[in-house]
Fold:
Amino acid sequence: MLVTCCNKVYHAHIKMFYIVNLEYIVLLDKQSIVKDFKIHDKDTGSSAVQIGILTAKIKILTEHLKSNHKDEHSRRGLLNMVNARRKLLSYMQRVDLAGYKALIGKLGIRK
Structure:
């Protein structure tokens, strides 16, 4: 199967396509994530938007690692993403507690 992404052609199996082109899939979903978490009209990089994008990437990699448990490189990337999200969440909790509570309620990531 040939897959075109960013002016490059990839040979990919269906189930491995989403891991090879993780950024491509998140780009497809990025507009909807930004639309859900934006604070104002031109907001694309606030903490809430970044946390939403990282959460989408984390969910994709978690599903990949369930079936590919020996993929240590992807596991390392997943741990880096989880750490970055944790730092952003602690920043939001410090700066905007009401926004933090609304965000974790919307994402369903903490109790």
